[in-house]
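Intended use. Records like the one below are meant for learning the mapping from a protein sequence to its folded structure. Do not use them to infer anything beyond what is encoded.
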Amino acid sequence: MNAMAIGHAELYIYPEKVTPQDRISSPQRIDVTGTQELLEVLTSMPAETSFSVLLVINDCVVGNGKYFMTHETVTILHEYGACVGFLVKPLAILREARQEHQRRYSSGQDHVRE
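Structure written out for the chain above:
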């Protein structure tokens, strides 16, 4: 975490069904300070995962949320304070990336061309 950052998001991740290739396979806390880091964490979560977010600025919690992720969507279970709408943009980016991957995979573009 950036020592100069005045805020960060604490993600508490609780995978429910994991496979051997999942990068996050047990409950853990991950701190992120930017959108790119947040996207990397969301991308690495197993398909069925509960997670909570605490938004912290100057060591004070300014928002919290609880979510459940599947392959298709993320269900908002609860959002309060600064967490209201916090994941809308990152989740839209993640959804677009998954759709693009699916289009490429289904059309065979992911294979190496000779």
